Amino acid sequence: MLNWLNKQWSVRVLAFSFIVLAVGAVESFHRNQVSFLKNESAAEAKKHLSVIRSRLEAAIVSDIYVLNSLSTLITVNPDAGPKEWEKIAANIIREGTHVKIIGLAKDDVINFVYPFRGNEKAIGVAYRDVPDQWESVRIAHEIEQIFISGPVDLVQGGKGLIARNPIFTDPPFNKDYWGVCSAIIDFQSLFKDVGVENFELKYRLGIRGLNSTGKEGAIFYGDSSVFEDAFATEQVNFPYGSWYIAASLDGDALADLPWYRVYFVRLVGYVLLFVLSLAFMTIYQLYTMARSRSLHDELTKLPNRRYFIYSLKQQFDSARKHGTETFAVMNLDLDKFKAINDTYGHAAGDKVLVACAERLKSVLRSSDIVARIGGDEFLILLPRVKDDVDARAISQKLQRVICGTPVIYEQDLIYLKVSIGWVTYDSCYEDVDALIRAADERMYEEKRQALQAPNFVK
């Protein structure tokens, strides 16, 4: 029995360990799944950021490309006047999607603006007298190519990029400097057309490189935290200079994914774990029930012969090993039980057996073991009995509790009588079978005496 209890605990520990390991495995796979989805989301964002970069480059280059037509006219015909300039400027405004204002400055003094209305005050302004603008004009002159400055705050509102295109009348030597052609590109319109607004619905965008100063330049869009948490970066290249753009997650990267994609591993894992646990518990319960039935009598719920012999062997081996332990084995048999079945029926006989089992348990100690080994016969193991005197006292007590009160069956009273034989452990007994045979012999001797008594069934 002790081994059986140990096995039960082993099974429980094993089951608990399996559940812990299974939960750990599910959570580990879940973390891997979440990491995969985040990487997938980041990869998608990197692709979108690359698209934003290419669109920015294409849009700005497209705008400044049309600006070259005006510069080319002046290079070819430096004596051309505002009428010719205005025609080309109007065409540039039409074709340049984001170009809003065009200005010409001969010797770096503004002498033409299109559209003129609203920009009249710009005529005659010398860039050398406006430090914020002179720097970008000077750089364009020095590098001899288009230079993108800004973005800057526009007087008419919003922000704009300023494309400075230096004009030389002696290309490709570029020694004879005519002046500069400037174009204001609408910053908000540009960002909207290249998809920045849609990109920022899911991600945070940051841009640095004010005045085309690249990665080391000042931040002019977004904030520094975007660059600190960036999972994707790109460089927007201009004819001269660049911007450095970065993207970071806006909150939870998985917020836009369906919940079942995020928790797919947990859904499958825990459902499978539940099914396996349920199957295991069902099998284990069936096994426990089957084992219990194999060790217990179905009618009286007492241990059966198999259980009793196993326990008796343990007690016998312990006594033989230590040499100081004593115990007793009793064999109890109901007298004339067949007559009860014949007279009142088998249902009455079953009730008598159940009542007898309950009365035995009510008298015996918790350390004692009583088993029904078949029919009307019971075996009792008394671990703490010293000698025949103790065994006789217990036998008499059992006689009184079983025979003292009749069993009530329907309208009838069934009086019981039992025969009890016992034997106490002695080293002369070679095995448990010898003990049981000795108890049987004493029980049958008492039964023979009982059978000679008057009929007790009333």
Keywords:
458 residues, alpha+beta, Beta-Lactamase, Alpha-Beta Plaits, 2 domains, 5-stranded antiparallel beta sheet, 4-stranded antiparallel beta sheet, 13 helices, rod-shaped
Describe this structure in words.
By secondary structure, the chain is α+β, with helices and mostly antiparallel strands. It has two domains: 1-295, Beta-Lactamase, CATH 3.30.450.20; 298-451, Alpha-Beta Plaits (2-Layer Sandwich). It has 13 helices and 15 strands. The strands form four sheets. Strands 2-1-5-4-3 form a five-stranded antiparallel β-sheet, sandwiched between helices. Strands 7-6-9-8 form a four-stranded antiparallel β-sheet. Helix 11 (346-363) crosses helix 12 (388-403). The relative contact order is 0.09.
Q: Total number of helical segments? A: 13
State the domain count. 2
Helix percent reads: 40-55%
Number of E strands: 15
Stretches where pLDDT is under 50 for at least 5 consecutive residues are: none
CATH domain fold name of the largest domain = Beta-Lactamase
The largest sheet, given as strand count, sense and whether it forms a barrel, is: 5 strands, antiparallel
Round the Cα radius of gyration to an integer and report it. 52 Å
Q: Measure the end-to-end span.
A: 41 Å
The CATH class label of the largest domain is Alpha Beta
Order of helices and strands: HHEEHEEEHHEEHEEHHHEHHEEHEEEH
- Our estimate of the beta-strand percent is 15-25%
**Which strand order spans the largest sheet, edge to edge or round the barrel?**
2-1-5-4-3
Q: Write the CATH homologous superfamily of the largest domain.
A: PAS domain
Domain GGDEF: 325-458
GO molecular function, one term: diguanylate cyclase activity
Keywords: Membrane, Nucleotidyltransferase, Transferase, Transmembrane, Transmembrane helix
Protein name: Diguanylate cyclase
